[in-house]
Amino acid sequence: MNRILRAVAVLLLLVAQGARAAAAPVPLAQSTTAPVPLVEHYRDVVESPPRLWAHGAILMDAATGEVLWQHNAHVRLHPASTTKVLTGLIALELGDLDAKVTISKRAAQTPGSSMYLREGEVHTLHDLVYGLLLRSGNDAAVAIAEAIAGSVEEFAVLMNDRAQRLGAKNSHFVNPHGLTHPEHLSTAYDLAVITRAALQNPRFAEIVATPVKELTYEELGRKVVLYNTNRLLRGGLPGADGVKTGTTGAAGPCLISSATRDEQKLIAVVLNASNRWRESVALLEWGFRNFALARLGRAGEVVMHLPVRGGKRRAVPVALRDELAVVVPRKGGAVPKMEVELAGSLRAPLRQGQVVGRAWVETPGEGRRRVDLVAAEAMPAATWLDRLYQGLVTLVDLEGQLNLNNVGD
């Protein structure tokens, strides 16, 4: 039954995609201009960025998506196993981690890095995702693809659709593991965008921050220990908490790394690097030394109360739907002021979460960053009893003011 449901889901996606059938390669999007990195706006107050030898690289703030620095960020390159960030994200979004997966011959015979799966074995999706993201198992990638979509080819359709929806528009994926294929390409910018989304998934963030994991294969009667291929997690970078290595002959040494300090998370991507560890550390350290994250408001935070006409109460609390933050230089960078645009006068009834305006802040990299303002709670329309009560309260308040005026006379 599960296999039938997966097939139906993939079929519906293929119909929605129209001409983008699994057998037909998706044309690569035309190269676009990368956002102007913040270093270009603040060169007079920040240090010069480190010299890197990577063919493509980027440093991105995880909270805002701001690009702090980039080099060939939109040049398409072979991504190798950094592909598995997207594979892992889709597995966590669409799969059941407790589901049992029977390993196929194709999965067991996948070349390259492996968690040493054998044909006919049964593993949980949970264990396969750990093997994918820690051990970088190509066999786990194929097993996951077959479990989620029925085949590698159909899973690639899901990958491309998810990448496009995330804004990774210069990427095209044909497999879940990143083994070299002439049409399997991505960019430093796209991989940072995908990683930023993946790190917002708490389970993904937990897995990629794990240096070592012991798995118990109960049905096979043995235990295995998986060591994360990302050696930054074992020292050399304070606050390191991800993400994924990748290496093939065509791609060269690649690394997506992340670190968090003082509630600021940065994401670095280096593709075809001379020394991926040294270059990633240098880039992240430079970012933390020179830029800080200024939070003007967190998601759900009430920032004002607005009057409501015809409501059960006189005013409704208004909150930010998402976090509003901006990256500023640590030296000489003023935090911009949050501005507010209201949709107009409010009239009951109001739904909780209903958009009532927008908050925004000026940023040098993007112009304005906007966040919806929403009603923090529902506001039902007033009944005649409510209106009577409100009228009485108004009269009492007015009488009190008149009495104070008389005392003053």
Report on the structure:
The protein is α+β, with helices and mostly antiparallel strands. Among the domains are: 208 residues, DD-peptidase/beta-lactamase superfamily (Beta-lactamase, 3-Layer(aba) Sandwich), CATH 3.40.710; 78 residues, D-Ala-D-Ala carboxypeptidase, C-terminal domain (Peptidoglycan synthesis regulatory factor (PBP3), Domain 2), CATH 2.60.410.10. It has eleven helices and 17 strands. Strands 14-16-17-12-11-15 form a six-stranded mixed sheet, with no helix packed on it. It is globular, with a radius of gyration of 26 Å. It starts with a helix and ends with a helix.
Strand order of the largest sheet: 14-16-17-12-11-15
DSSP helix count?
A: 11
Determine the N-to-C terminus distance. 85 Å
According to CATH, the homologous superfamily of the domain at 2-26 and 72-254 is DD-peptidase/beta-lactamase superfamily
| Protein structure class | alpha+beta
Silhouette: globular
| CATH level 1 class label of the domain at 2-26 and 72-254 | Alpha Beta
- Strand-and-helix sequence, N→C? HHEEHEHEHHHHHEEEEEHEEEEEEEEH
CATH architecture title of the domain at 2-26 and 72-254: 3-Layer(aba) Sandwich
The overall average pLDDT, rounded, is 88
Biggest sheet character: 6 strands, mixed
CATH topology of the domain at 2-26 and 72-254: Beta-lactamase
Number of strands: 17
